[in-house]
From TrEMBL:
Protein name: Copper chaperone CopZ
Keyword Metal-binding: yes
InterPro entries: CopZ (IPR049740), Cu-bd (IPR000428), Heavy-metal-associated_CS (IPR017969), HMA_Cu_ion-bd (IPR006122), HMA_dom (IPR006121), HMA_dom_sf (IPR036163)
Pfam families (alphabetical): HMA
Chaperone among keywords: yes
Gene: copZ
HMA domain mapped to chain residues: 2-68
Compartment(s): Cytoplasm
Length: 68
């Protein structure tokens, strides 16, 4: 398992947290997603043989948030 922390802009409420955690959490190979709303960070624990960082970033971007 690998863990990455992504800086994500545009998250401001509980709905944002649920949208990101739900979408990323559904990706095959993702074990855990934690959103730090105040810090604007998303920490993802995942299996890099099943899902790529690019796919994780695209999933967040598809929800309308900016991944830096």
């Amino acid at each position: 398992m690998e863990t990455i922390t992504l800086k994500v802009g545009g998250m401001s409420c509980g709905h944002c947290v649920k949208a990101v955690e739900g979408t990323v959490g559904e990706l095959k190979g993702v074990d855990k997603v934690t959103v730090d709303l105040e810090g604007g960070n998303v920490q993802v624990q995942f299996d890099s043989t099943s899902v790529s960082v690019k796919e994780i970033k695209e999933a967040i971007d598809d929800q309308g948030y900016d991944v830096e």
